[in-house]
Automatic annotation (TrEMBL):
One CC-aspect GO term: endoplasmic reticulum membrane
Alphabetical list of PANTHER family matching this protein: BCR-ASSOCIATED PROTEIN, BAP (PTHR12701), ENDOPLASMIC RETICULUM TRANSMEMBRANE PROTEIN (PTHR12701:SF12)
Parts of the chain that traverse the membrane: 6-24, 45-61, 94-115
Keywords of this entry: Endoplasmic reticulum, ER-Golgi transport, Membrane, Protein transport, Transmembrane, Transmembrane helix, Transport
Keyword match Protein transport: yes
Protein's recorded name: Endoplasmic reticulum transmembrane protein
Subcellular location: Endoplasmic reticulum membrane
Keyword Cell membrane part of the UniProt annotation: no
Length: 131
């Protein structure tokens, strides 16, 4: 399932870049084109949410169902290190999933806000021309 994590990592990076480009001041001349491009990518990025849910279940399953050591002497040092490494990796993956959800929500909200601001600006211009 490593391909899912790589795909999610690239998608989070793309979301972060799009969000950065939308919120950088001074790009007003490019803003309309950026908003159109981002609105076009929001629906395909929505397909990442079920993938995130599946990966979240995988992380939960990995944390809950860690196999117990059946030996009489308990866990060896290498078993403990492997368990700790797996827990750290699961925590990082959970952070990646939360970041994907947060960035998608921010991208959706900011895009809708910019579209609304553009519409209000056009309405203001038409009212100035009429009045």
């Amino acid at each position: 399932m490593e391909l899912g994590w790589v795909l999610l990592g690239y998608a989070v990076a793309a979301e972060a870049v799009m969000l950065l480009l939308l919120t950088i001041p001074g790009l007003e001349s490019l803003r309309v084109g950026l908003v159109t491009a981002v609105r076009g990518t929001l629906k395909p990025l929505l397909l990442l949410l079920p993938l995130c849910l599946f990966l979240m279940v995988q992380v939960y399953w990995q944390c809950v169902c860690w196999p117990a050591v059946a030996s009489e002497h308990g866990c060896t040092h290498s078993d403990n290190l492997q368990h700790e490494k797996s827990l750290v990796e699961s925590n990082l993956n959970a952070i990646l999933i939360a970041t994907a959800f947060l960035l998608y929500w921010l991208l959706f909200s900011i895009t809708n806000l910019l579209v609304r601001v553009h519409q209000l600006g056009q309405q203001l211009e038409t009212l100035k021309m009429k009045g």
